[in-house]
Structures are given as structure tokens and as C-alpha cells.
Amino acid sequence: MATYTIPKLNPNECTTHEWYAPTVLHTHTDWEFTTLTEGTGENVVNGVAYPASYGTFLLLGPKHLHQQNAQGKMVRRDICVSDYNFKKFCDELKSGLYEQLCEQETPIQITLPIGSYKALVSRL
Prior knowledge:
23% of the residues lie in helices and 44% in strands. It has helices at 83-93, 97-103, 114-123; strands at 4-5, 14-19, 26-27, 31-45, 48-52, 56-60, 66-81, 108-111. The strands form two sheets. Strands 2, 4, 5, 6, 7 and 8 form a six-stranded antiparallel beta sheet that branches. It has a two-stranded parallel ribbon with strand order 1-3.
């Protein structure tokens, strides 16, 4: 089972972090968009490996048991959003979206055009 639980964010909190190493097996109490900006690796979510690729964000939430592995050097960027804020954002987009995402055991993969991805990562 999980070796670590990411601490709960304050209700209005959104943070971003750059990391240079793989992670231990952990769970989330809030929501996280994670992306690999350098190197190669994989995200293991609920026992299934997903290749980590440049240009793709993975959306992870409370139902996702997660670990990141790397072959050699890796740099990744995480955007962490409190459950409260995530629900607000989802409600603005579509009624019932938050509830749908809460039930999703498979992570959502979001692939952006490379130009948009580079612009977004540079702003983080």
C-alpha cells in the first residue's frame, strides 16, 4: 500500500513545484497535474504504468495510488490544486464534471501542442 500521503492543501491553495527525482508510492488528498519536462520515465497509477512524455500532463486525484519512476535523469513539474479549488474550477466548466473525475480510477492524460506546452511550462 501507499508509503506516503501528500498533505492536504489549504482550501484556496494552488502550488507548483519542480522535482528532480522519482517519487515513492503515495496517495493524493487533493489534485495534481504532473508532467515530465526532461528525461524519460513513467507514472505508475493504481498498478498500471503510463509513459511520462514531454507535452503531456497527467491528472491525479484521491483515487490514484501513484509513483513516478525514471531511467536516468528526470525533471518534472507538478501543479497541485486543492480539492475545494478543483471543484470550483470543474463546476465552472460543466455541471457534474467534478463528480465524474472523482469516480475516475484511470488518470486523465492531457496532451498539448508543443508550442502551447512550452509556453505553459515557462509560465509555471
